[in-house]
Amino acid sequence: MEREETVDDIVAKLEKVKHPVRDNIYYYCYQGFWVNEFHLKGIKSFQTQFVAREDDIVLASCPKSGTTWLKSLVFAIVKRNSIKNDSHLFTSSNPHDLIPFDMNEKFMSIIENMKPRLMATHIPYPSLPISIINYSNSKIVYICRNPLDLFVSDWYFNHKVLFGDDLGHEPSHLEEYFDMFCKGIHVFGPFWDHILGYWKASLEIPHKILFLKYEDLKKDNIFFIRKIADFLGFPFSVEEENQRVPQEIEKWCSFEHLRNLEVNKIGKRPSGASNSSFFRKGEIGDWANCLTPQMAELIKTLIIVTKDFGFMIFVLKGMISFQTQFVARDDDILLASCPKSGTT
């Protein structure tokens, strides 16, 4: 009988890159994206053992893209009647306990009795369990964020995970982290592949995948609370609108309210991160306080952005159209380059 491949077997075959700060930590390239070794067991289990149900709700994101906020919003929308009867349900748990990640050791036991089952993942779209992709009625809500802010948030978060919250100084090794980020070597990166994978899928199956931008939610939270509710099949009734339930959910899930809950000031996650580390600033444009203009320009060349740093959807549509519709001729001549490499 052939022995089942273990995580150690998988790790031994993978390309690895040393962490920019800790010599004993490595990033491993698994199915085209980068992970830490402790992620692999949960990912492999999720990919091979998870069986989706038609009413499952999956929240997907690249790390530090607004995941915590999205979890609180979706939980509040779907479970609003329960929260109304018992607000303790929402205020006594960290959002990551309310909607568990697929890598959580207790993942299956946590979601088993949920109806609908609410779960979260950082796994890129092509590597999701096939049953999630194939079940027509399960829903995926994806959130992305301006990569400049994503990087800065990730840099701060990594610092807290590695060194704790009480060092009394700003994180270090910015240049080393930045260099790896621009190469796509960060947890669940490259970010451009992650975003584009879900964006393309959302165009192909819009009834199944709702693609959101963090910046849009910040600008018009009520509009997107309603949009998420409609997409998930939990629309607000006329009575709920009259009672201003969407506005109540906005208050429940506001950054200040979540950050000031006692449960989010204490305790730690299995990764070692403190609950408080998920509530640093939540601002748009904070990257300007950390990155040089040259750094910002380099990231902008990796994924084309508009003047307000929202993703240029028409550019992505053009890329997708070229990939799926272009038919080459024998005498075609193609010039290829990375941006700012002498293309002109």
From TrEMBL:
User: Which terms are listed as keywords in the entry?
Assistant: Transferase
In its keyword annotation, does this UniProt entry include Transferase?
Answer: yes
Molecular function (GO) terms for this protein are: sulfotransferase activity
- Annotated Sulfotransferase domain ranges read 55-300
Entry's EC annotation? 2.8.2.-
Question: What does the sequence similarity comment in the record state about its family?
Answer: Belongs to the sulfotransferase 1 family.
Name by which UniProt lists this protein: Sulfotransferase
